[in-house]
Design goal:
globular, Transferase, Pyrimidine Nucleoside Phosphorylase, Chain A, domain 3, 432 residues, Aldehyde Oxidoreductase, domain 3, alpha/beta, 4-stranded antiparallel β-sheet
């Protein structure tokens, strides 16, 4: 391992054998964390070539179980988001794309920090379970064309160890490490093609379009070298997506979107991502045709029916879809009024996400218990005109003492100015 550290420190290219030795030793515990940390720092400063990154991804992918979805007909298309605030697209895209005829086998995560997690949102539906065996996952996929579950602990154990070390060694931001982490998990789950939503802005990990494009190109290259097709969508996360942040609130908004009544930005992004999933699934010739097909699924009610099917198959209370008042509600609410007259110039997603966590909607640590009803309903977004004293947002919590720390964050999130800001794109670029 010392030789591998020196080799990478000196900027030399590592071989498959080198990576195999390191990953095997790390997973077995034979190579100590301090040596792996030294390797990560060497990569942080020297980087990895595209070939190294693809090999590293492949070796990591094979460090644990692999899910074989070959018995499922059709191209299995996955979607991954690099994380944001108010991003409930999986709840909409899963049933929407499955209704259109592409199998959606989704393994999702939980929220930590300012970003929410798909599993937490789904579990705000009474009775719904995201825990299932591999055979149950495949059977549900066969029967319903969709299944959403938590990641198997035996999938890509190498990434779990590496991610924990990256978090405490200041090496999170290296692009080859980011891309190999994402791709190893997606490919281990049996995806044959992937649409990746790379978020850019204050509420995202990537702060510039240029850095997001570099990450996109690297993941597309990894996919190509491993025989998988990737489409990357670079989308805005300067302000939250949609009008809700918080688990049950986001489920409610997802249901409204599947009914054709969702916020414009959320609906648009789902149509962009979903149409490209249909292209990868091989059932439409291009994104324009895919968009029409998805809109037809919404208009006919088939997308909403598929969501009901998913909820019922996973043990959830289907009645919440027709009566959203049955979703968890927090005991207390507080209106946040505008301190000024003018236009909303900024609505920083990071601060909104942190405010939501303070209300109990997210986790500050892995041990935190989530209040499914807590969160924020946004009434004014960037570009909207507001009068002094007019409501900007409504906060929900199970304990009134949580409002003050949340309001401190939300006060930083809103910037009110005299002039209306220029419109900015929702989608910056689509790469493949």
């Amino acid at each position: 391992m010392v030789d591998l550290i020196k080799k990478k420190r000196n900027g030399k290219e590592l071989t498959r054998e080198d990576f195999q030795v390191m990953i095997d030793g790390m997973v077995s515990g034979d190579i100590p964390d301090y040596q792996v940390s030294a390797f990560l720092m060497a990569v942080y400063f020297q980087g990895m070539t595209a070939l190294e990154t693809a090999i590293f991804t492949d070796v990591m992918m094979r460090s644990g179980d692999l899910i074989d979805l070959s018995e499922i007909a059709g191209v299995k298309v996955d979607k991954h988001s690099t994380g944001g605030v108010g991003d409930k697209t999986t709840l909409i895209l899963g049933p929407l794309v499955a209704a259109a005829g592409v199998p959606v086998a989704k393994m999702s995560g939980r929220g930590l920090g300012h970003t929410g997690g798909t599993l937490d949102k789904l579990e705000s539906i009474k009775g719904l379970s995201v825990d299932m065996s591999r055979s149950e996952f495949i059977e549900r996929l066969k029967e319903h064309n969709i299944a959403i579950c938590g990641q198997n602990a035996k999938l890509v154990p190498a990434d779990k160890k590496l991610y924990a070390l990256r978090d405490v060694t200041g090496t999170i931001g290296e692009l080859s490490l980011i891309s190999s982490s994402i791709m190893s998990k997606k490919l281990a789950c049996g995806a044959e093609a992937i649409v990746i939503d790379i978020k850019v802005g204050s509420g995202a990990f990537m702060k510039t379009v240029e850095s997001a494009e570099k990450l996109a190109e690297l993941m597309i290259d990894i996919g190509s070298k491993m025989g998988r097709r990737i489409i990357a969508v670079v989308s805005a996360m300067q302000q939250p997506l949609g009008l809700t942040v918080g688990n049950a609130l986001e489920v409610e908004e997802a249901i409204q979107t599947l009914k054709g009544k969702g916020p414009e930005d959320l609906t648009e992004l789902c149509l962009v991502l979903g149409s490209n999933m249909l292209v990868l699934g091989g059932i439409v010739a291009d994104a324009a045709e895919g968009r029409k097909k998805l809109q037809a699924m919404i208009d006919s009610g088939e997308a909403l029916d598929k969501f009901k099917e998913l909820v019922q198959a996973q043990g959830g209370d289907v009645s919440v879809i027709d009566d959203e008042n049955k979703l968890p509600k927090s005991k207390y609410s507080r209106i946040f009024n505008s301190p000024f007259t003018g236009y909303v110039n900024e609505l920083y997603a990071m601060d909104v996400g942190l405010a939501s966590v303070k209300l109990g909607a997210g986790r500050e640590t892995k041990a935190s218990v989530i209040d499914f009803g807590a969160g924020i309903r946004i009434l004014k977004k960037v570009g909207d005109r507001v009068e002094k004293g007019e409501p900007l947002a409504i906060l929900y919590a199970g304990d009134e003492s949580l409002f003050e720390p949340a309001l401190e964050k939300l006060n930083k999130a809103y910037v009110i100015g005299d002039t209306k800001p220029e419109d900015t794109p929702l989608v910056y670029k689509i790469l493949e």
